[in-house]
């Protein structure tokens, strides 16, 4: 049975000086990736328009863009539903991200930029401060910031935008995995190993640490599926 949007959800002020559809898209996307909107949740265009104080047109446009990313399933004249997490799509997103980031860390290890290393270590420290608080949403934001900093330092920020657009399914898998005992600590440890290898100019070490880091969630796919059987689909 499908869930419906709770009355407390989607409380978000629209900036009237900006286009509405991108704001609705970003907010709904955040809620889907954080699993505040779980797979199977029905998104009513009429209800969303009412909550945002908008016409249905920008809401429709936002939902169509979410559909393009595979985050919702749109059934014309029927309903829009938050999609299940597609494992095949997650694997392809991981393949792309790993391919790009292996070159990113290679570039950074060759540069050995002291300023970047300080920035990355500061981000890791912020993550470490959240370990005992179990603030998974903030932890995830710093995780994204860590990787974005590396892309920007390597001179390929647009590739980060590309990866983010294609990573909705793998991001939701990671969000399911994050509360597992020891996972957040492992992320901090992996990030530290990556930065240490970059600082030492150790290309092989940085790439090995990155491979381990990016693959850890999909290595636990059977356990995640067992814990959330209704959230995952294979294709």
From TrEMBL:
InterPro entries: GntR_C (IPR011711), TF_FadR/GntR_C (IPR008920), Tscrpt_reg_HTH_GntR (IPR000524), WH-like_DNA-bd_sf (IPR036388), WH_DNA-bd_sf (IPR036390). The keyword Transcription applies. Residues 18-85 form the HTH gntR-type domain. Coiled coil: none annotated. It comes from the Bacteria. Keywords: DNA-binding, Transcription, Transcription regulation. This is GntR family transcriptional regulator. The lineage of its organism: Bacteria, Pseudomonadati, Pseudomonadota, Betaproteobacteria, Burkholderiales.
